[in-house]
């Protein structure tokens, strides 16, 4: 139990369970899962589906923050990915064909990867501050999306493309399964190879890692490229859900949710050690919190305050000092004085 309390994302799991408990108290059917045509339905399944975009951007953000950087452009990249895919499907002759769907998906992910590589180039090669670089890309991304859509909301009709977000595989939402496979594959790469250690070393001390034979420039370029690519996938999930891209709203403030998910998961903003599993817990917590706010009919004006209070409490519980209160060991009683082996039994008793 003491080791669990020391875990950085233990309280994230506790908060997730408590949020589900609050919803169950209000409506016991919250955890009810029904089967219809072989597919699972229910509030918990809705949470899994809604968590797919947050899982994507939180995973990329984890790697970026582990290097001591930040990526504020993920929301804008989501918008760009949604804009290029919707615009393509809206103007192609047969949007329902597999060729059109794969082309739209390729354009969205390809452009997102390019934007991530631009961030990586500015940070790793030119040496610009990640905050400034990605802030510029956040503004430029919205402008690129407006250019692509001519400043208008774009709607398309494509059943196969919509299936990416709303379809089911083996009864589960396909978007969640795709996100889970991507996160698992990435976790396997960074933990079963030296890549994860190199990312952590760059985040702890770039100069020392360079002297140890690691090339921080390549690591930084890679993590920002991956972050852009995953943000593009998140944009596909978001726009495919409603088959509409709103340039002013798609991906808005998603970078904040990604950063919060990473922090709740136990990854330090100072860089260094990271936890992809913790970020998954954080992403699920953020989505569950949004669902709880809606489920409890909390007024929209009070929503940010309610969300902030919950997240602040979780972050406080992750503090080293606060966790020390739960893991404080009681002092051991003093050891009895050493006995002289030459003493007789009567002398010991006396």
Describe the protein's topology:
Layout: H1 2-6, H2 10-26, E1 34-36, E2 39-41, H3 43-66, H4 74-91, H5 98-125, H6 130-149, E3 154-155, H7 159-166, E4 168-169, E5 172-173, H8 174-192, H9 195-204, H10 206-211, H11 216-242, E6 244-245, H12 254-264, H13 276-295, H14 303-317, H15 320-327, H16 345-349
Antiparallel strand pairs: 1-2, 3-6, 4-5
Helix pairs in contact: 2-13, 3-8, 3-11, 3-12, 3-13, 4-5, 4-6, 4-11, 5-6, 5-11, 7-11, 12-13
Structure description:
The chain is mainly alpha-helical. It has 16 helices and six strands. The chain has helices spanning 2-6, 10-26, 43-66, 74-91, 98-125, 130-149, 159-166, 174-192, 195-204, 206-211, 216-242, 254-264, 276-295, 303-317, 320-327, 345-349, and strands spanning 34-36, 39-41, 154-155, 168-169, 172-173, 244-245. The strands form three sheets. It has a two-stranded antiparallel ribbon. Helix 3 packs across helix 12, helix 5 runs antiparallel to helix 6 (130-149) and helix 7 (159-166) packs across helix 11. The protein is globular and about 70 Å long. The model has no long low-confidence stretch (mean pLDDT 85).
């Amino acid at each position: 139990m003491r080791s669990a309390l020391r875990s950085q994302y233990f309280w994230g799991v506790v908060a997730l369970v408590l949020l589900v408990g609050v919803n169950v108290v209000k409506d016991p059917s919250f955890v009810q899962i029904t089967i219809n045509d072989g597919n699972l339905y229910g509030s918990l399944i809705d949470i899994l589906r809604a968590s797919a975009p947050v899982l994507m951007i939180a995973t990329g953000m984890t790697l970026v923050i582990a290097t001591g950087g930040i990526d504020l452009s993920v929301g804008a990249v989501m918008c760009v990915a949604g804009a290029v895919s919707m615009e393509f499907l809206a103007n192609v002759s047969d949007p329902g064909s597999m060729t059109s769907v794969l082309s739209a998906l390729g354009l969205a992910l390809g452009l997102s990867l390019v934007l991530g590589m631009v961030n990586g180039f500015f940070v790793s090669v030119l040496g610009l501050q990640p905050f400034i670089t990605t802030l510029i890309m956040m503004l430029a991304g919205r402008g690129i999306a407006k250019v692509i859509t001519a400043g208008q909301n774009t709607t398309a009709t494509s059943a196969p493309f919509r299936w990416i977000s709303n379809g089911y595989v083996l009864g589960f939402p396909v978007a969640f399964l795709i996100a889970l496979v991507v996160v698992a594959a990435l976790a396997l790469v960074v933990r079963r190879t030296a890549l994860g250690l190199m990312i952590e070393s760059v985040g702890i001390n770039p100069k020392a890692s360079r002297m140890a034979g690691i090339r921080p420039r390549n690591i930084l370029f890679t993590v920002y490229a991956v972050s852009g690519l995953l943000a593009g996938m998140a944009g596909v999930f978001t726009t495919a859900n409603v088959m509409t891209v709103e340039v002013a709203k798609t991906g808005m403030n998603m970078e904040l949710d990604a950063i919060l998910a990473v922090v709740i998961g136990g990854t330090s903003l100072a860089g260094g050690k990271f936890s992809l599993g913790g970020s998954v817990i954080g992403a699920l917590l953020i989505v569950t919190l949004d669902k709880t706010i809606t489920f409890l009919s909390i007024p929209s004006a009070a929503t940010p305050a309610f969300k902030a209070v919950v997240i602040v409490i979780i972050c406080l519980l992750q503090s080293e000092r606060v966790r020390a209160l739960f893991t404080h060991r009681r002092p051991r009683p003093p050891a009895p004085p050493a006995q002289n082996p030459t003493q007789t039994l009567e002398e010991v008793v006396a």
